[in-house]
């Protein structure tokens, strides 16, 4: 389902910070904003409407305003009428402290389109508004698992029910790593296909441990043991090895498995759980190894190259 916010919600949440004020169209503030990208309609104002991105908020800065001042009012009125007639335009925002022209106000009133102004410079305004919209409109899902930050790497621990995900996370906490969320992880996909995981506000800093109950991680381990959010860079799936053929597990690391989350590929690793295995240490090693892979170093490929080199030498 597509996420949207209205112009009214934008004003309520960010209006004061962005210095926004409504010039006209107060009765149309329930128009929906569905994309985080903004549009500077220089070509559209000049009359070129092919591939015009009408679904975006339209930003009129000093450059666009300067062009409008250099053309005849009749031509600008004609071009603006063609541009602002699109029914899916959320709103028009004039930036840089520029005052909206009479023609622009007239056309916005004609099409019942919200017209806003801000004193912020165009580049600053676009940056801040894009960040806000990206956060509010980003695709989102919830996953069952534990998200921890291990050596600066966001690791999503998932696995069979009762396999010991929370217990593994507690051991990682004891070893100095950081908890983001236990049991439920909210995931957003930000620009650049980056996955950000965080905890639902109601269960933030709490963990459920079978046999003990609910614990407060912040009080037990200190404020440094929790983090609001983290980029998800690896998934570890804990799988019971009981009645499983252990020969099916990759022992070299040549297989690079991935899991898809919100359309984004994330490196994935399956770890068989058997008595006596220190899962926390294994996840630490996996995290360090993944960091090396992120830097372009693959130990198994290096070993393979060395073996082939020696074979050729013989």
Structure description:
It is elongated and about 80 Å long. The protein folds into 2 domains: 5-137, Udp-n-acetylmuramoylalanyl-d-glutamate--2,6- Diaminopimelate Ligase, Chain: A, domain 1; 140-307, Rossmann fold. It has helices spanning 7-18, 42-45, 62-70, 73-83, 102-110, 122-137, 165-174, 217-221, 279-294, 299-313; strands at residues 5-6, 21-24, 32-33, 38-39, 57-60, 92-94, 115-117, 140-144, 146-150, 153-159, 178-181, 184-190, 194-198, 206-209, 213-216, 229-240, 257-261, 264-273. A hairpin with a 3-residue loop joins strand 12 and strand 13 (194-198). The protein has 10 helices and 18 strands. The model has no long low-confidence stretch (mean pLDDT 90). Helices cover 34% and strands 28% of the residues. The chain is α/β, with parallel strands linked by helices. The N and C termini lie far apart (61 Å). The strands form 4 sheets. Strands 8, 9, 10, 11, 12, 13, 16, 17 and 18 form a 9-stranded mixed beta sheet that branches.
The stretches of 5 or more residues where confidence is low (pLDDT under 50) are none
CATH fold field value of the largest domain: Rossmann fold
* Helical stretch tally: 10
The total of beta strands comes to: 18
Per CATH, the architecture of the largest domain is 3-Layer(aba) Sandwich
Indicate the CATH class of the largest domain: Alpha Beta
Helix/strand structural class: alpha/beta
- Rg over CA atoms: 27 Å
Helical fraction:
25-40%
Mean pLDDT: 90
General form? elongated
What composes the largest sheet?
9 strands, mixed
Number of domains: 2
How much strand? Answer: 25-35%
**CATH homologous superfamily designation of the largest domain:** P-loop containing nucleotide triphosphate hydrolases
Taken in chain order, the helices and strands follow as EHEEEHEHHEHEHEEEHEEEEEHEEEHH
């Amino acid at each position: 389902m597509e996420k949207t916010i209205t112009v009214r919600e934008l004003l309520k949440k960010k209006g004061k910070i962005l210095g926004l004020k409504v010039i006209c169209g107060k009765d149309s503030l329930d128009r929906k904003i569905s994309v985080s990208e903004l549009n500077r309609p220089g070509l559209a104002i000049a009359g070129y409407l092919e591939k015009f991105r009408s679904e975006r908020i339209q930003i009129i800065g000093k450059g666009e305003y300067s062009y409008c001042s250099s053309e005849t009012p009749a031509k600008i009125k004609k071009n603006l009428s063609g541009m602002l007639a699109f029914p899916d335009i959320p709103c028009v925002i004039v930036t840089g402290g520029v005052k909206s022209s009479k023609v622009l106000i007239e056309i916005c009133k004609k099409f019942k389109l919200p017209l806003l102004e801000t004193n912020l410079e165009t580049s600053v305004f676009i940056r801040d508004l894009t960040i806000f919209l990206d956060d509010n409109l980003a695709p989102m899902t919830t996953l069952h698992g534990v998200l921890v930050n291990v050596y600066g790497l966001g690791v999503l621990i998932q696995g069979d029910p009762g396999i010991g995900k929370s217990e593994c996370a507690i051991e990682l906490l004891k070893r100095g790593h950081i908890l983001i969320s236990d049991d439920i992880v909210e995931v957003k996909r930000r620009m650049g296909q980056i996955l950000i995981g965080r905890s639902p506000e109601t269960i933030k800093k709490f963990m459920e441990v079978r046999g003990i109950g609910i614990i407060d991680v912040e009080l037990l381990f200190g404020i440094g043991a929790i983090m609001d959010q983290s980029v998800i860079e690896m998934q570890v799936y804990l799988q019971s090895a009981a009645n499983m053929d252990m020969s099916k597990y990759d022992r070299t690391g040549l297989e690079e498995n991935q899991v898809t989350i919100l359309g984004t590929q994330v490196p994935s690793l399956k770890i068989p759980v058997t008595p006596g295995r220190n899962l926390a240490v294994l996840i630490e090693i996996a995290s360090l190894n993944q960091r090396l892979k992120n830097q372009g170093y693959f130990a198994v490929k290096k070993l393979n190259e060395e073996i082939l080199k020696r074979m050729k030498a013989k």
